[in-house]
Automatic annotation (TrEMBL):
Gene3D superfamilies: Glycogen Phosphorylase B. Pathway: Bacterial outer membrane biogenesis; LPS core biosynthesis. InterPro entries: Glyco_trans_9 (IPR002201), LipoPS_heptosylTferase-I (IPR011908), LPS_LOS_Heptosyltrfase (IPR051199). It comes from Orenia metallireducens. Keywords: Cell inner membrane, Cell membrane, Glycosyltransferase, Lipopolysaccharide biosynthesis, Membrane, Transferase. GO terms for biological process: lipopolysaccharide core region biosynthetic process. SUPFAM superfamilies: UDP-Glycosyltransferase/glycogen phosphorylase. Transmembrane segments: none annotated. This is Lipopolysaccharide heptosyltransferase 1.
Length: 347
């Protein structure tokens, strides 16, 4: 049997779908399992022991070229999907549930196409089998595993199987050595920025928290993030009195996973790196405002979610219309209290 798993983006969402690969492998141990993903999140599935083939959907490249080279871009896309059809998939399981993923399932030529009954953007038009989901709020990981039940897949355990190759482990060790990180000190990683301005906390408060961790709790603090976050992290560090480290934009996803795996604690808002840390089994303290921790919070028991108690919380707006009241409602003392609680529980 040949099975195509579809979760194209984003980083956090691909992490949420990884347990589907493990559950599918356990149900169909002899199947050839292929995952199709966009370039930005590909590192998360590379090396996964449950996946035989990885196909990169070059959506970003097509989007960039389409403006000036419409016909040649369409020809490229046509050629891509013709190659995809040569795999002769028996099943395409779309856990993404959007037009682009459902269309990918359709154009894959799979004999059976399965997706969520509540898929958006007209995606359900492309499914032959629609999986009904619970009406109550459930975590995205549980949602994805519910969709997988449409192909008779059940999960007894949730495993992500983000595997670091030996050279990636060596690179992580080298990064920490170059930073002068001491194993005897508690290592805390902070990822202060997200892709939504509404989900971000305040720079001054991050600086206060980091200074407190270093001075009063004898922690090493590493700030993480993407290339676009590096300048902002520098602004936070400039506000600090103590010495910390800026790794924003200096690691790929696997190296970042390795950093989190070595850390004692991750602190951040609702973003892909937060889910990556949770997937690596690192304790997480997450700050939530415009999004819902019940569906998008850190998965597992060894985590703490801080949430401002305001009427406008969980608005799902990328740009705040209320001066970020929900995020400002989370104070420095709230976060430091959670840190103390978490570190005490681990000693």
């Amino acid at each position: 049997m040949k099975i195509l798993l579809i979760r194209l983006s984003a980083i956090g969402d691909v992490i949420h779908a990884l347990p589907v690969a493990k559950a599918t492998r356990e149900r169909y141990p002899k199947a050839e399992i292929t995952w199709i993903v966009e370039d930005k999140a590909k590192d998360l599935v590379i090396g996964n022991p449950n996946i035989d083939n990885i196909i990169i959907l070059p959506k970003k490249e097509w989007k960039r070229e389409f403006k000036d080279k419409k016909w040649s871009t369409l020809k490229k896309a046509r050629s891509f999907f013709k190659e995809l059809q040569k795999h002769q998939f028996d099943i395409a399981l779309d856990v993404h549930g959007l037009f682009k993923s459902a269309l990918t399932a359709y154009l894959s030529g799979a004999k059976k196409r399965v997706g969520p009954a509540n898929g958006r953007e007209g995606s359900t038009l492309f499914y032959q089998q629609k999986v009904n989901l619970p009406t109550e709020e459930i975590h995205q990981i549980d949602r994805n595993l519910q969709i997988a039940q449409g192909i008779d897949v059940q999960a007894d355990d949730v495993d992500f199987d983000i595997i670091l190759l030996p050279e990636e482990k060596r690179r992580v060790a080298q990064i920490l050595e170059e930073l002068g990180i001491e194993d005897k000190r508690v290592l805390v990683t902070i990822n202060p920025y997200t892709s939504w301005s509404s989900k971000n906390w305040l720079n001054q408060r991050w600086a206060e928290v980091a200074d407190n961790l270093i001075k009063n709790l004898n922690c090493e603090v590493i700030f993480t993030g993407g290339p676009a976050d590096r300048a902002g992290v520098n602004e936070i560090i400039d506000l600090m009195k103590e010495r910390s480290h800026n790794l924003a934009g200096k690691t790929n996803l696997k190296e970042l996973a390795g950093i989190y795996d070595r850390a004692d604690l991750f602190i951040g808002c609702d973003t892909g790196p937060m889910h990556l840390a949770a997937a690596m089994g690192t304790s997480v303290i997450a700050l939530f405002g415009p999004t819902n921790p019940k569906t998008h919070g850190p998965y597992g028991d060894n985590n703490i979610v801080l949430r401002g108690d305001t009427q406008c919380k969980c608005c799902w707006k990328r740009v705040c219309q209320h001066d970020k009241e929900c995020m400002k409602a989370i104070g420095v003392a709230d976060l430091l209290g959670a840190v103390n609680l978490m570190l005490r529980s681990e000693t």
